[in-house]
């Protein structure tokens, strides 16, 4: 196919660099500097997509981010798939592959089109929900086919080969948009010395200057833009970010900018010859001041069949002709309510194609451009508008009629003009989206017939973004606003730059026209589209108001107006105007909806940046991690720690299952000796003359008499009396203690101690330091533990000399160590603490000596089974923030007679915490020993009771015990301690019911003799 | 990206070093045993949720580990001042408008109108209007 619509000269493309690309399976040629949209138009491609709901053929409508139809799926390979790309914003590159996101099996022959054709009239808003919702269970089935038919693009099923990153940036003045106002604003601020970031979403900076017919200082506007950009590029205090969309405007001038780094060059950075570079970058900018110079979007008029390919907004016609050397048709009819749009007709005629007519809704347009058109011999039909387009896959004509905009009726006879392109302009809407992100509602201006941004602290608006449209005025406005922003950012000397010379044009006022009246009543006329992406028609908006939806927010949700990926950039104002007309209210009275970030779709890669895969979250390793890896450990995440979960061995050539490995590890500890890497336990060093007093206030039990060399288990409550953490604390010296916490609770407990010390008891002299990482902890436990330890340490291990809950200092494997006789398994246990960098040496020495005892490493799963067999709790598993020490049956660890009212004490006597029937910790023994109850399973007393049953509690920990050869569990049960021996029931989701007996929490060695052998 | 002035470090630090820690200026009854269940319940469970000026406790968790106070506007999320534990706010719901006008906005130092910089102690000495 040839580029039949390409002009031989003109435009900002490089005709010497030909690019080949594929669209919907067909190969085409374009030039460097093209967008995908301009290249498609150059090749005469009319239908680029099928519409979302009615499956109507759609063509390219606009030239920027507001494009509602040309939404494509990009990517030559599966891994490079990108959905939701606007063809108007995608730079063309060699080898680009894209297809329309809608249309199945193809946009030309669409199986869903019968729905639009036959059923179109019967598809009011809410059609899918009203029709397919019943039965509800079938919706998922219907939806699959509806989605396939409608198409919304798809995400790739293979991993993205590209990388993305984030930049944090600070600047004095951030200028968003590099059109006339943006450029003069940036120049004013930059020349004053402010650090300026200037971003623009287009491939090239200059905005509307690039397609302007006007002159600046006697030269083409685009030449002045090039010169201004060149000056800014040469300044050290200016960062230019082209191809960068300001996508979100957040609190306190925090703006997110999305920069396309290699997306415009190829499918992947590697394919672009830029291997290792980032595909897209998210700039997180904290700006002193923001200058919003985002310009405006032209509104199309709403008329019948305004969606047939060949209907464009007028400004886009000029952009395609002047920037890309592409005329998107042969014969043009322009329908307008303002002067500025006339340039489309002038550009069209100068390109050598026929302008059939300009249809102006105003009675007497007499502006300079209108005169120029008349002088050029163009037919101007006044007081009229295009009422309806004819044609199917391409416009074939325009039905023009005289209208009365006040009464919203046609007043004359319909004339049909033969043409293949209809350009329309209903005026201009300032791009208020970013300002709206901050929560500030846009303000309606009757003189502009548009919304302008609300007032945002730290934001200045320049140019078209607040309705200053004329070129000379926009340049001056930008210059002044840029200086004002710089002054506000502390550059007091900042002054507006001298504004270049621009000829002033006379324009006659724009008339208020949004929807063109049709000879048939709105609900009978052919479809008049308001929101092209979501297939929302004027009739749908009208129907919504008739059905009682009066708030624009409700109209939006009922019709889906503005819900597309384009967020209604083209259609919203027209929709509001139609709703206002139907409700007989003013547009500001109907109000506007809120725009939210992001302004245009952003790929997840850019949002995630480097925070993925291994860098998603920091990982913490113990000093022994490498040994665990080499010995085949499976790991479990505990907070950020990687802890060995279990150590599967190969038995008879087969790798053990977790169940087999845990059973073996449990028996090794109960019968021989096992070893656990417990280094992750939180460790807090506490010193000071008031350390002991402080411990007495934060723990529930007593600390006044704990002598150096002794260890005590403590419970820590919040002030509501609920357990928050537990652990042992050892007295290292009269004023020196070492507190241990749960692995996950370490940081929280340290902060908790600081909180109480700093805010309640600053008079206490006590200091806290985290020493978790300083010490490695190895637990040697089992009946053979003492034998093994005696081979590696000089500490006297005699059971009378080194009692349970003692700690001693000495050498282990020749290394200084603290050894604690505490047990979390119920067996004889020694917890060895050594400086972390000696840990591997000690660990290996233990294994060298431990071989003859079959020293068995065990992981967290075995640790859980062993402690649960002893009824030892894990804070956060057996407790959940609603469990008191009394509920746990730990009355022995609560010092009610301590002199100071410790944290949580007062709450324990509140009526609710003192109730007898609170959930209490009990053991459960399943009647069927093979059953391992589900953790979280609910306990009931009467399994025959009708749902909802009376729930009495739930299982908190449940395992299989190889020693008991039975499942067993810990649970919290209402009034549990008075229910010993009772049978309870646990109904499961599959309808089965387990039976269990309420027993003591201690399943093994109830007298605690084994830890003292 | 957002900077908060730590009144102990005496400098602006990254927001990621800080963490909120609930309502400021809560008074724990000095003798818990002597208060009624209702009073103790109020202390435990009831918190203000104002629209506008709010005093909050924050902690410089990844810095000096000190707790301090922030006066913040819950409608605009502006931090109006930061001050040490034990000090009283100079900006309150009663005088917020006056104080805000006196403030200065720094270009890149976040949005504290008056931080607990040296001028804070001076502001503290003034009698609130």
Automatic annotation (TrEMBL), chain B:
Pfam families: SoxD (PF04267). Transmembrane segments: none annotated. Residues 104-129 are annotated as: Disordered. InterPro entries: SoxD, SoxD_sf. This is Sarcosine oxidase subunit delta family protein.
């Amino acid at each position: 196919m040839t580029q039949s619509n390409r002009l031989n000269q003109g435009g900002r493309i490089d005709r010497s660099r030909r690019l080949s690309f594929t669209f919907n399976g067909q190969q085409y040629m374009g030039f460097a500097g093209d967008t995908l949209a301009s290249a498609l138009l150059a090749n005469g491609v009319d239908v680029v997509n099928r519409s979302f709901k009615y499956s109507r053929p759609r063509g390219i409508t606009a030239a920027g981010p507001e494009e509602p139809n040309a939404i494509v799926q990009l990517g030559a390979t599966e891994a490079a798939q990108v959905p939701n790309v606007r063809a108007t914003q995608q730079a063309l590159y060699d080898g680009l592959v894209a297809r329309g996101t809608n249309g199945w099996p193809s946009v030309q022959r669409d199986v869903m089109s019968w729905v639009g054709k036959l059923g179109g009239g019967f598809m009011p808003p809410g059609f899918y929900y009203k029709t397919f919702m019943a039965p509800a269970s079938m919706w998922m089935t219907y939806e699959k086919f509806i989605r396939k038919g409608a198409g919304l693009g798809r995400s790739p099923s293979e991993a993205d080969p590209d990388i993305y990153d984030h930049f944090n940036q600070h600047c004095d003045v951030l200028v968003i948009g590099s059109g006339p106002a943006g450029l003069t604003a940036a120049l004013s601020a930059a020349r004053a010395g402010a650090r300026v970031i200037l971003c623009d979403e287009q491939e090239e900076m200059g905005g509307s200057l690039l397609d302007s017919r006007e002159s600046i200082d006697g030269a083409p506007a685009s030449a002045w833009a090039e010169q201004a950009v060149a000056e800014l590029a040469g300044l050290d205090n200016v960062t230019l970010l082209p191809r960068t969309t300001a996508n979100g405007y957040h609190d306190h001038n925090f703006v997110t900018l999305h920069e396309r780094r290699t997306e415009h060059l190829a499918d992947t950075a590697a394919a672009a010859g830029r291997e290792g570079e980032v595909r897209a970058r998210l700039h997180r900018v904290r700006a002193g001041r923001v200058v919003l110079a985002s310009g405006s979007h032209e509104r199309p008029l709403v008329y019948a069949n305004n969606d047939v390919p060949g209907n464009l907004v007028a400004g886009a016609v000029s952009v395609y002709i002047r920037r890309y050397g592409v005329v998107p048709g042969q014969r043009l009819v322009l329908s307008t309510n303002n002067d500025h749009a006339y340039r489309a007709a002038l550009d069209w005629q100068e390109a050598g194609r026929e302008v059939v007519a300009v249809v102006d809704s105003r009675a007497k347009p007499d502006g300079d451009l209108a005169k120029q058109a008349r002088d050029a011999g163009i037919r101007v039909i006044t007081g009229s508008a295009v009422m309806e387009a004819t044609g199917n896959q391409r416009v074939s004509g325009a039905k023009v009629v005289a209208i009365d905009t006040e009464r919203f009726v046609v007043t004359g006879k319909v004339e049909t003009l033969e043409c293949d392109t209809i350009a329309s302009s209903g005026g201009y809407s300032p791009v208020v989206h970013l300002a709206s992100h901050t929560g500030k509602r846009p303000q309606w201006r009757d003189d502009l017939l548009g919304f302008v941004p609300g007032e945002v602290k730290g934001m200045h608006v320049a140019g078209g973004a607040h309705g200053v449209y004329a070129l000379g005025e926009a340049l001056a406005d930008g210059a002044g606003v840029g200086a004002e922003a710089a002054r506000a950012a502390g550059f007091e000397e900042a002054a507006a730059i001298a504004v270049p010379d621009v000829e002033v044009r006379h324009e006659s006022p724009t008339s208020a026209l949004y929807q063109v009246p049709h000879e048939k009543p709105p609900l009978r006329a052919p479809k008049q589209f308001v929101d092209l992406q979501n297939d929302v028609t004027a009739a749908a908006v009208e129907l919504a108001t008739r059905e009682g939806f009066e708030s624009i927010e409700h109209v939006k949700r009922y019709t889906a107006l503005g819900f597309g990926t384009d967020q209604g950039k083209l259609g919203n104002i027209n929709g509001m105007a139609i709703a206002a007309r139907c409700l007989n209210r003013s547009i500001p009275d109907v109000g506007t909806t809120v725009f939210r970030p992001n302004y245009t779709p952003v790929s997840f890669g850019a949002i995630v940046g480097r925070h993925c895969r291994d860098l998603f979250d920091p990982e913490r390793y113990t000093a022994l991690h490498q040994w665990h890896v080499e010995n085949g450990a499976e790991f479990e995440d505990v907070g950020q720690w990687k802890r060995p979960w279990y150590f599967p061995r190969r038995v008879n050539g087969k790798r053990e299952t977790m169940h087999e490995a845990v059973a073996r590890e449990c028996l090794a500890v109960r019968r021989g000796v096992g070893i656990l890497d417990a280094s992750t336990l939180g460790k807090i060093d506490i010193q000071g003359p008031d350390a002991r007093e402080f411990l007495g206030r934060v723990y529930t039990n007593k600390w006044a008499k704990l002598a150096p060399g002794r260890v005590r288990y403590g419970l820590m409550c919040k002030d509501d009396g609920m357990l928050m953490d537990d652990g042992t604390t050892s007295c290292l010296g009269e004023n020196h203690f070492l507190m241990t916490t749960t692995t996950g609770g370490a940081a929280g407990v340290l902060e908790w101690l600081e909180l109480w010390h700093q805010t309640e008891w600053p008079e206490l002299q006590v200091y806290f330091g985290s020493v978790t990482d300083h010490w490695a902890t190895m637990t040697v436990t089992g009946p053979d533990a003492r034998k093994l330890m005696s081979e590696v340490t000089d500490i006297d291990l005699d059971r009378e000399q080194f009692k349970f809950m003692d700690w001693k200092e000495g050498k282990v494997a020749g290394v200084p160590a603290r050894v604690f006789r505490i047990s979390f398994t119920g067996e004889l246990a020694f917890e060895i603490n050594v400086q972390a960098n000696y840990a591997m040496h000690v660990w290996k020495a233990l294994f060298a000596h431990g071989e003859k005892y079959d020293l068995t490493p065990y992981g967290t799963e075995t640790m859980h089974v062993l402690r649960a067999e002893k009824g030892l709790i894990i804070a956060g598993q057996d407790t959940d923030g609603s469990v008191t020490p009394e509920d746990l049956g730990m009355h022995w660890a609560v010092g009610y007679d301590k002199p100071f009212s410790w944290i949580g004490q007062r709450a324990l006597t509140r009526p609710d915490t003192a109730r007898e029937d609170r959930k209490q910790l009990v053991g459960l023994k399943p009647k069927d020993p093979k059953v391992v109850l589900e953790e979280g399973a609910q306990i009931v007393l009467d399994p025959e009771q009708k749902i909802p049953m009376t729930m009495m509690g739930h299982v908190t920990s449940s395992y299989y015990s190889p020693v008991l050869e039975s499942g067993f569990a810990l649970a919290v049960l209402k009034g549990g301690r008075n229910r010993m021996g009772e049978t309870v029931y646990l109904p499961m989701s599959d309808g089965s019911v387990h039976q269990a007996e309420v027993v003591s929490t201690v399943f093994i060695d109830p007298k605690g003799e084994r830890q003292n052998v | 990206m957002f900077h908060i002035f730590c009144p102990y470090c005496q400098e602006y630090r990254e927001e990621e070093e800080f963490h909120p820690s609930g309502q400021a200026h809560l008074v724990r009854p000095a003798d818990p045993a002597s208060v009624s269940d209702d009073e103790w319940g109020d202390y435990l469970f009831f918190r203000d949720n104002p629209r506008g000026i709010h005093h909050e406790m924050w902690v410089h968790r990844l810095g000096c580990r000190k707790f301090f106070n922030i006066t913040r506007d819950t409608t605009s999320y502006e931090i109006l001042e930061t001050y040490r534990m034990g000090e009283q706010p100079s900006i309150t719901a009663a005088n917020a408008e006056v104080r805000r006008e006196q403030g200065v906005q720094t270009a890149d130092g976040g949005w504290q109108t008056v931080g607990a910089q040296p001028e804070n102690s001076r502001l503290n000495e003034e009698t609130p209007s």
